[in-house]
Write a structure and sequence with these properties.
Structural class: mainly alpha
Distance between the termini: 31 Å
Number of strands: 0
Low-confidence stretches: none
Shape: globular
Radius of gyration: 12 Å
Length: 48
């Protein structure tokens, strides 16, 4: 299932539409926001 979702995501161009440098709205709880930030940095989608 993850592979299929990854393919759909890539083909739809969501990586070009979603601005990963900004926080989500509504804001996540602090612990989840830190986790998302670390994950995006790990994948090079946010500056370190």
């Amino acid at each position: 299932m993850q592979r299929l979702l990854g393919e759909v995501y890539d083909q739809a161009g969501y990586d070009l539409r979603v601005n990963y440098t900004r926080s989500v709205m509504p804001p996540l709880p602090e612990a989840e926001a830190r986790w998302v930030d670390a994950l995006l940095r790990e994948h090079g989608l946010r500056a370190s």
